[in-house]
Amino acid sequence: MQGGFSVAISGYGCACSLGFTRDQVTRSLRSGSAHVVPVDLFSVEGCQARTAAQFPASPAELAAAIHFPAGRWSRAAQSVLVVLAEALQNRANFQPDVVIVGTTSGGMDFGEAFYRRAMEGGNLESASRRVRSYLPQTPVLDALRVLGIRAPVRVVSNACASGTNALGLAWQLVRSGRANRVIAGGYDTLAQLVYAGFDCLKASTSELCRPFDAGRSGLVLGEGAAFFLIEREGDTKITGYGSATDTHHLTQPHPSGSGPAMAMRRALEAARCEPGAVDYINAHGTATLQNDACEAAAIQSVCPKAAVSSTKAMTGHTLGAAGAIEAAFCAISLAQDFLPPTLNFRNPDPGVTLDLVVNASRPAKSRRVLSNSFGFGGANASLLLESA
Amino acid sequence: MSPLGHILGTGWVTPYGRSVSDVCHKIFDGQTPPSEMLEIAGHTWPCYRVDPSSLPETNAFPRLRRSGKISHFALTAAIDAVVSAGLTEDEKSQLPILFATSDGGVIYTRRFFTELDARGPGAGSPLLFPETVYNAAASHVAAYFQSDREATAMVGDAAVALSAISAGCELLSQGLSKHVLIIAANECDAISVAGYSRWKFLCQTPDDPTGNIFSEGAAAIVLGPPRQRKPALMWCREGRPHFSRKEAGDSLREILTHPSVPPPWIFASCQRTPLQEIEQEAIGHLDGKIFDVKKSLGEGLAFTAMAQIVAASHLVETSSQSALVTVLGFASGTAAASLSCR
User: Fold this and answer.
1) What is the pTM of this model?
2) Residue A280, CA distances (Å) to A227, A337, B9, B188, B197 in order
3) Which residue among A232, A233, B99, B200 sits deepest, i.e. has the most Cβ atoms within 10 Å of its Cβ?
4) Interface contact B242, partner A, CB < 8 A
5) DSSP of A74-85, one letter per residue?
6) CB < 8 Å to B150, chain A
7) Chain A residues in contact with B156 (beta carbon < 8 A)
């Protein structure tokens, strides 16, 4: 690869079911707490699953405190504003060359509302005011405008790998010298269409999310956002990124784990890092039968000695935000010297021989950590972070 | 100025067919195809549709048996672009794919949500939902070419097509790939036209003199190393987002500040829309002949922005001249690109 500039995270913000600030999230990660609750944002009648990792409160009040009209924005836009404001705290002069954002569903709740209004007949022009907030770029454009940033925005929508892809593309730009400063991250909030979608695929569970457990029965959806200021200097370095497409099936990974393994290897090769030098992997770990089996096979083939956990039992699967949120967890892990746990773990899966961090966080001084994200369409992405 | 890459192959699926030269001829003549009507909740709008019989390869590809139209369009355009670029089997399997779209699989999304709305959230179809994800088409294209490289979907207004080209150029410039396939696609559904009504860039009737007729299709290019007589992509820039007509003009002017040579031809994006005047003002000083792709191909958002690139590439390749492509999107996106064969 041309260039070879160092790439680092100089600031970030993160919000999910564990809290709206980095400090809140760090405390919850360390203590191993979760916030999975019955869904009260929309009807889940008839769904097999009934719970989700919702934000601990509506982000409306926090958003309105930053910019009063944001109290009426979409939930997605509110969370993006809150998180971007935290990322830019004390960095008011940070003007990126480009902003790269991962999401799967944008302001879907507003899209759903528009659909219902349109089907009722009546004034479409009035109803279509909601469509602007449905567009995936709108939450980010609106938040950036409030925060005084005007840069081109690229929206990556590669299903559940989107957040990691966004960070990876930012890494490529800064490393090659084609950009000096990038804001990158991801967001997604809960929406009925997406909730029903995972439910009808029988990917969601009606009980607890138990990643890598022998009795795992599916994922719990969540919501959140994380954004990073990426430039040449900072507390955490991004040293490698790899992506790969598994062409086996639109929604099912190849059982061998070849796609995830390829993404991990490419990230390590980009960083010129030996697999044995990876201390910890924040796994995609959705707790579906297929994902965890295939990811475990991939990790066993690439980094068998690394400690591994999935934080999705705590945060739920935040889809397009997951890669960004979990990269934030990796940065927290490096800075705070602990590994976050895989909650709800009861029985080892005989097919999974990983060094799993289960049920309680583990004190550990890590140097290199890998964050995995995989998604529909065979999208696989891995990001390597190192302490500076 | 060194080119960012060279356009080695192009392909498209349009309401006027698949032949790049035939469709370009119609565009340059200002012809318009017959329109059909879309209807939802008592409202109707005209649209230009793709003839499904023009997609035999994808209809025969098993993975697309149940997929949405957008995936068929994207793959067909991709196949034609890759064939015209003359890539080897080995090169195809090493192709990174960038897929740009504005609405994604909107037909399946609307159908899926209609089911939920009518029968309850527990009654969604597991066949429809996976095809609603924005990257479904990119995944199918990767599967067709058996490429294990990145297949990245990007979403936005029309300008996203040029953002995807920029992202593709970055892969080339960093030495991460020899070739890159970039596709943009759109499919027609009445819910989209209904949603866009407030921006007033779409025709309400077939004879409406303001706006463009909503349309569907896909366009694709293969970028790679220099090859004789193939157009060079001299630059491709994304502008700052705009929230007003003034900002739209400023944003476009900013990225057009230093075009190296004033182009004889300009493929503009906003004819007959509320942004036409703004775009014309921004490009007026360049004094080039302005081409109107959307009169013939309609407004297909990301698809027609990429179609502007394909049409410009065809003209540049056949004339050994240069061309400018400008895109002002309805939702804040701005981008422009310059092509040359000099």
Assistant:
1) 0.97
2) 22, 11, 44, 46, 50
3) B99
4) no
5) -HHHHHHHHHHH
6) 165, 243-245
7) 135-137, 153-155
Residue among A16, A303, A317, A330 flagged as catalytic: A317
Tell me the C-alpha distance between A355 and A206, whole Å.
27
Report the distance separating Cα B212 and Cα B45, nearest Å: 11
Is A47 a catalytic site residue? no
Predicted confidence band of residue B260 (pLDDT cuts 50, 70, 90):
low
Give the number of other CB atoms < 10 A from CB of residue B42. 7
Helix (H, G, I), strand (E, B) or coil at A303: coil
Can you give the pLDDT at residue B279? 96
Instruction: Give the distance from residue B56's alpha carbon to the nearest chain A alpha carbon, in angstroms.
Output: 21
B240 CB within 8 Å of a chain A CB: yes
Using CA atoms, how far apart are residues B146 and A323, in angstroms rounded to an integer? 25
Please tell me if residue B1 touches chain A, with a CB cutoff of 8 Å. no
Q: Give the length of chain A.
A: 388
> Helices (DSSP H) in A138-257: which residue ranges?
138-146, 162-176, 192-200
Tokens, residue B287: 């004094």
In the DSSP assignment, the letter for residue B17 is B
Query: For position B259, what pLDDT does the model report?
Result: 66
Instruction: Calculate how close chain A gets to B139, using CA atoms only, in Å.
Output: 5
Residue with tokens 């060279």: B6
A254 counts as catalytic? no
The pLDDT tens digits of the residues spanning A192-221 come to: 999 999 999 999 999 999 999 999 999 999
Residue A19 CA: distances (Å) to CA of A35, A36, A241, A282: 9, 12, 28, 19
ipTM above threshold 0.90: yes
Q: For position A17, what pLDDT does the model report?
A: 98
Q: What is the spatial distance between Cα A198 and Cα A208, in angstroms, rounded to a whole number?
A: 15
The pLDDT of residue A335: 98
Tell me, what DSSP letter sits at residue B322?
Answer: E
Angle at A341 between CA A272 and CA A335, to 5 degrees: 55
Would you tell me how many other CB atoms lie within 10 Å of the CB of residue B328?
Answer: 30
Q: DSSP 3-state assignment of A45?
A: coil
Distance from CA of A47 to the nearest CA of B (A): 4
Distance CA B92, CA B96 (A): 9
**B108-152 tens-digit pLDDT:** 999 999 999 999 999 999 999 999 999 999 999 999 999 999 999
Structure tokens at B251: 């944003």
Tell me the chain A residues in contact with residue B239 when contact means C-beta distances shorter than 8 Å.
Answer: 152
pLDDT digits (tens, 9 = 90+) for A324-338: 999 999 999 999 999
Q: What is the rounded CA–CA span in Å between residue B203 and residue B182?
A: 29
B206 CB within 8 Å of a chain A CB: no
Interchain contact, B173 vs A176, CB within 8 Å: yes
Q: Is A317 a catalytic residue?
A: yes
Catalytic residue among A14, A160, A209, A303: A160
Q: How far apart are CA A105 and CA A188, in angstroms?
A: 6
Measured CA distances, B189 to A8, A98, A273, B106, B270 (Å): 43, 32, 48, 7, 21
> Which tens digits make up the pLDDT trace of B174-185?
999 999 999 999
